[in-house]
Amino acid sequence: MARVRLTDVARAAGVSMKTVSNVVHDYPHVSAETRQRVQQAIDQLGYRPNLSARRLATGRTGMIALAIPEIDHPYFSEVSRRIAEEAARRGYRVLIEQTLSDTDAEHAVLRDREEGLVDGVIFHPVSMGAVEIGRLHKDTPLVLLGEAAIPLTTDHVMIDNVAAARQSVEHLLAMGRRRIAFLGTVDGDVTVSTRHRLLGYQEALSSADIDADPRLVLRVAGFSPEDSAEAVRTALADGLEFDAILCRDDKFAVGAMAELHAAGRDIPNEVALIGWDDTALATYTHPSLTSVAPDKQLLARVALELLIERMEGHIGVGRHRIVPHSLALRASAPPLA
Fold this sequence. Notes:
The protein has 337 residues and is α/β, with parallel strands linked by helices. The protein has three domains: 6-49, Orthogonal Bundle (434 Repressor (Amino-terminal Domain)); 63-159 and 295-325, Response regulator (Rossmann fold, 3-Layer(aba) Sandwich); 161-293, Response regulator (Rossmann fold). 43% of the residues lie in helices and 17% in strands. α11 links the parallel β8 (244-247) and β9.
């Protein structure tokens, strides 16, 4: 089937090619009646703009790159979907790139960015520091997500992980829990988010005049639910006493929950449990999982707004935005009576 051309749409709508082009590029000086007629012709014929022609005409591709550590991590999957939805509402498409937190892969996000392939980049770094990003970031507009690096020259969107962890522990303390474990620190982990969450955990204990017990910071071999289950299994076998667990993400909470069930521990009566990220997993566990809930929709919206402003010529020092979070209270650490 032959490709539908601009001239075919113009003929079907009874207008000039210039008018069709104005409608495609959403120029405001087209009457509503003409715009509707052209749009009907576009829909009927299945016309799709030629991206190469658009690039030549506007200097833009209509494409945004999103670089994340793991495509299959529930949090990043959900954030990616919201960014793609927000981008589509603004007329952009999203290319997703996985870095697996590898330093070379993260360097490539900035160093090997092909000029003209995308109009901007949203990037969640893990291994790279602020100075590295500042050195490698050149002309392509960039917005960062997460806590790993906050360069003065680059826009950045995150939640307050310290405050979120503190709020979670305060809720557990209000439930009467005093032996609260943190799950956990991962061997070889280079993420800043774990350190921030551990800091908030310790701050809440200190404010309650509870001495932090290093044994309650559980070490985990890896990032899978199986690894977190093994850490809880080891703690139970060692006779470690705890009546609550704050987990670094929902995947860890799922593993912990499975092991607590296997050990015959009642959730939440014997051990209360809080996850992190409020992913879809949280509503399908038994019992349902209380979880720190970043406002993912707002995070995506703010990141896109900052990026589009950069793409449209905004110049200045990096703008740093903290989006709100909440504690999604469910059965594993329920609301206070």
